[in-house]
Description:
271 residues; alpha/beta; Metallo-beta-lactamase, Chain A
Amino acid sequence: MFNFCSLFSGSSGNCFFVESDNTKILIDCGESAKKIVNSLLSINVRIEDINAIIVTHEHVDHVRGLGTISKKYDIPVFANYETWDAIPSQKDKIMSNNICYFNCNKKFKIKDLEILPFSTPHDAANPCGFNITFNKKKLSIATDIGHITPELLTNLENSTFIMIESNYDPEILKYSSYPYPLKQRIAGPYGHLPNQAAGQTISHLLNKGLKSVMLGHLSKENNFPELAYQTVLDEIDLSNNKMNFELFVANRSFPSQLINIIWFIYIIHFF
């Protein structure tokens, strides 16, 4: 068993769930503790069964409920040194024995899951994505990425499944009500990834072992699920792809279906 579920994904909050035969973890806790607990229950997972939380970076939509959940349910939290330094209000809530550190580009294990954090280009202290490996299958999580670097692309290669950011459409962003400095930040090299770049990245990775993709962290104001989905497909030449390919779009407020990383049978387009 090797499963993934997006519990929440968007600028208002992010939290992902991964489970293997013997391990259950969360990636980020960017919603309230109550919402995360209830979201897990909706997929028949108890918060008491979560073995650890790993953190991508310190922005509030990724750590809002972190300290409360760790303290209340005695869950270890793993983050890099710079991220811990950037979240003192969350760190102060967590018992010292549950404060765990990792270094980017250095593997560590949580029970039967092997985890490799890798650096991502975003305007945070030391943001990262994760490669999570079980039973020789790899899933990757890369959101909050201003652009695709060669190193990032290398880390995503040979993944069976990826959760990748498809945050905005440039034309919608251009004419949105956002103030100009915020538009610059979003579209800048350390902001967020547009739909077309997500599609181009996926197109490359389909020749590197990729079987299934979930688009995440869509902007509520500067994107639409249908638009992100279609823009990505437009960048992919499916006629040259003989493999099965699944494409999902994460919901901002509700859990996705539980995705089995090991077995893929059908070509499914779903949002």
